[in-house]
């Protein structure tokens, strides 16, 4: 088993009309043994910027602390929040810096940029960015997530329709992966509000 699959997980980010959704499963496992069923994999950097980390849970928590330290320094110096594109470059730089002993994680970054334009991207463990205009996925369930998202995605969805689409894609995908699941955690972010919801899924 790959070290990236050791704790399991599934993360998805999808864009809508001036909004985006980011979702993850809630399982923390050690290989096939479930340890926790309410593990946080999506982190709120600011009201318009979210970060999902799949892979080795300890590395995810360590990296998030480093990123929040850098983001707070930026806020103090610049007196504003980081743009999603800037934050993605920061994550990429930190990962590449550790390329000879990398963090075993795959980040997903989602945010609202200038003129409320949604931005999503993912990268590998050494910071090679992959930008997308529709959706990005990460984690052990990524193969089934790709299939579900390809089938369900439509451009310019309103927030409620986007929530429904991401929920269905996440729940149907984690049912096909024994290393992720146990419900879902979803944020739907618009220019005016952030909606957080917990989904119930199969508990096996």
Automatic annotation (TrEMBL):
* Alphabetical list of CDD domains matching this protein: proteasome_beta_type_3
Q: Name one GO molecular function term.
A: hydrolase activity
Record keywords: Cytoplasm included? yes
Q: Does the keyword Hydrolase apply?
A: yes
InterPro entries on file: Ntn_hydrolases_N (IPR029055), Proteasome_beta_3 (IPR033811), Proteasome_bsu_CS (IPR016050), Proteasome_sua/b (IPR001353), Proteasome_suB-type (IPR023333)
Give the GO biological process terms.
Answer: proteasome-mediated ubiquitin-dependent protein catabolic process
Protein's cellular compartments:
Cytoplasm; Nucleus
Keyword vocabulary terms for this entry: Cytoplasm, Hydrolase, Nucleus, Proteasome
- Which Pfam families does the UniProt entry name for this protein? Proteasome (PF00227)
Main location as per UniProt = cytoplasm
Q: Name one GO cellular component term.
A: cytoplasm
Summarizing the function annotation, the protein's role is: Non-catalytic component of the proteasome, a multicatalytic proteinase complex which is characterized by its ability to cleave peptides with Arg, Phe, Tyr, Leu, and Glu adjacent to the leaving group at neutral or slightly basic pH. The proteasome has an ATP-dependent proteolytic activity.
Q: What family name appears in the similarity comment? A: Belongs to the peptidase T1B family.
- What interactions and quaternary structure are annotated? Component of the 20S core complex of the 26S proteasome. The 26S proteasome is composed of a core protease (CP), known as the 20S proteasome, capped at one or both ends by the 19S regulatory particle (RP/PA700). The 20S proteasome core is composed of 28 subunits that are arranged in four stacked rings, resulting in a barrel-shaped structure. The two end rings are each formed by seven alpha subunits, and the two central rings are each formed by seven beta subunits. The catalytic chamber with the active sites is on the inside of the barrel.
The protein's name: Proteasome subunit beta
Q: Which organism is it from?
A: Rosa chinensis (China rose)
Lineage of producing organism? Eukaryota, Viridiplantae, Streptophyta, Embryophyta, Tracheophyta
